[in-house]
Amino acid sequence: MKIATWNVNSIKARLPLVKKWLELQDPDIVCLQELKCVNEAFPLSEIEDLGYNVAVHGQKTYNGVAVLSKLPFDEVNVGLPASEGRGEDDEQARYLEVVVTQGETVLRVASIYLPNGNPVDDPKKYGYKLDWMERLYHHARELLAYEEPLVLAGDYNIIPTENDVWNPESWSEDALFRPQSRAAFRKILNLGLTEAYSAVNGQSHNYSFWDYTKGAWPKDHGIRIDHFLLSAQAADRLVTCEIDRLPRGWERPSDHVPVLIGLKA
């Protein structure tokens, strides 16, 4: 099974590229982020015509996540829930979780668009990022108790290590690379999750995001912030994890590129 994650940075602006890429790669499940549209504005019929079932959690102008699946959905859960007294359910459209069945295997997949958190001197921005990660930690812990293949995929807005950024010093005070952010990411991993790219590829300085400015793409001044976190039951099936740089060179691209994993049956 081929599963992909891609921050498309506006599904409306990127629809021709998304359709082209889906036809080229033919993934079984795709997690999309930063749709920038409400549910009703999502191009449902055009994606369904390519053979996908679609679940959408949209938001006007900002955020928005979706899951496309060639398998029917057994379950669709919208939004990252509150847990252990941590306020209300998240109002921003950043989390969508589905369950599908392949043969005798039940697979749970979530599309995640973790908050950016900048500027870090704004408690509402950076505090929201850290609080959201704490919510994700508790929710992931609850999901792991099911002891089923679990795939948490998406734009985490976290640079895990110095090997995942072209110039660590230039990002040292950014919310994506601050020690508190990376520690929160490691806390989630330490639940027993496997970060897929590091587990089976591990190539240093291979990025999934390049800013539109300062010639970042032609200079390869990128960062790796799009990740797959897998439960032990999913990690046991992990065969490949690749970053597909091709769409970044297309006309009017997203600033992110797709990341794909392959899971054996």
What kind of sheet is the major sheet?
6 strands, mixed
Work out the helix count. Answer: 7
N→C terminal distance: 7 Å
Mean pLDDT: 96
As a percent range, the share of helical residues equals: 10-25%
The count of DSSP E runs of length 2 or more, i.e. the number of strands, is: 14
Structural class: alpha+beta
Neighbour order of strands in the largest sheet:
3-4-2-1-14-13
Class, according to the CATH hierarchy? Alpha Beta
Summarize the structure.
This protein has a single domain (about 1-265), classed as Deoxyribonuclease I, Chain A (4-Layer Sandwich). Helix content is about 25%, strand content about 25%. The chain has helices spanning about 10-25, 45-50, 125-145, 180-190, 195-200, 215-220, 230-235, and strands at about 1-5, 30-35, 55, 65-70, 75-80, 95-100, 105-115, 150-155, 195, 210, 220-225, 225-230, 240-245, 260-265.
Topology summary:
Blueprint: E1 2-7, H1 11-25, E2 29-33, H2 44-48, E3 53-57, E4 65-69, E5 75-78, E6 95-102, E7 105-113, H3 123-144, E8 150-155, H4 179-189, E9 194-195, H5 196-200, E10 209-210, H6 216-219, E11 222-223, E12 226-230, H7 232-235, E13 238-243, E14 259-263
Parallel strand pairs: 1-2, 7-8
Antiparallel strand pairs: 1-14, 2-4, 3-4, 5-6, 6-7, 8-12, 9-12, 10-11, 13-14
Helix pairs in contact: 3-4
